[in-house]
Amino acid sequence: IRDFRKDQLEAFIELFVQVLRLAKEAGLVKLGKVSTDGTKIQGNASRHKAMSYGYMKKEVERLREEIEAMVTQAFQQDDADEAALGSRRGDDLPAELERREARLAAIEAAMRRLEEQAKAEAEAERQRGAEADAERERQGKKRRGREPKPVEESPDDKAQMSFTDAELHIMRMSNKGWDYCANAQASTDGESQIILACGVSDAPHDKQQAEPMAQATLANLDQAGIERPTDESGQVQAIPATLDNGYYSEAATQALEDLGFAPYIAAGRHKHHEPQTEGSAEPATAKERMAAKVRTPEGTALYRRRKVIVEPVFGQIKEDRGFRRFSLRGLKKIRGEWSLVCLTHNLLKIWRYGCVPQTT
Fold first, then answer.
1. Which of 317-324's residues contact partners 24+ apart within 8 Å by CB, and which partners?
2. Whole-model pTM?
3. What is the pLDDT averaged over residues 197-226?
C-alpha cells in the first residue's frame, strides 16, 4: 500500500478532479458560497535532526579544519608508504574523511537554503513596507515613530532546518507549540462541504495563498465540467468567497475579483461576541472598503457561514479520520498525499449523502 501511494501521486491529482465530477453529478456542488482556509499538519521531519544556522556555521568551520588535518595526515602517510613499499593506488578516500565531507556538503546545502529563504522573506518585508508607505501617501498621513530598521537578508542564527525534510519549516501549531509542518489548504463548497481545490504551502501564513487557491478552484471546476452560476438572463455571476484575516491584502482582493469571485475577507481580527459596528466615515482605503463590505448584512451572513463550511472539513479529516501527520517527505510528495486525503473526503461525502450517481 505504501509503495502504491508513493507511485501514484500524480494520478491522485487527476483522480481528485474525477471525484469532483462525481460530486457535481450527485448534486453536491452548488457554488453558492466557497470558503478557503488552511491548517497546519505535522510533517515527517524530526526536530532532533535539525540544526540552527548559528550552529551550522560553527560545525562547517570545525569540519573543514578536521578535513584539512585528515588530508594532510593522509598525504604524509602516503609518502611514508611509498618510501617503504613503492608506488600504489591511493585514490580511495578513508571512511572517516568521506563521512565528514558528506556531512559538510549536507550542512552547506542547508545553509544555502536558509539563506535563500531569508532573502525571500526580506524581499517580502520590503514589499509590505512599500505598500504601507504607498497607503500612507495616498491618505496623506505621515509615518509615526522611528524609521524602521534596514531589512536583514542574512538568516538569524536561531533559524533552523531539519535534515530529514529540508523543505518544511518550523511552524506554530494551535495549542501545541512549534513543529515542522506543512500548511495544507482547502477551498470548500458551501452546499455539502465538498473540497473544490486543495494545495500545500511551506509558508507559515496564508497571505500569499488566496490567488493560487482561487486559480486551482477554477481549473478544477473547468476540468470537472462544473459551470459557474448564472442569473436569469444567463449572465455569469461572481462566486461569493469567504476567507479569514490571514489571507487579506489589497492584491489578493483584486486578484479574486479579476478571477470572478466576490471576496469577503476579514480585514482585521474580530473578537468573539463583540458587536459589529457601522463605520461612521466613508471608507477611504481598500482595507476599509473590505471591512465595510463584510459588515453589511449580506457580508455578515456570508462570513458567518465560513466557520461551518471549511473549518469542519479540517475537523473531520483530523479528528474523525485521524490524519494529523504526513507520511511522505518533500513538498511534491506531500501535495500528492494531501490530494489523496481530500479526494477521499469527497468520496465519503458522496457516500454519506447516499447520492452516488447511477452508472449506465
1. 317/341, 317/345, 318/39, 318/41, 321/345, 323/41, 324/41, 324/42
2. 0.79
3. 93
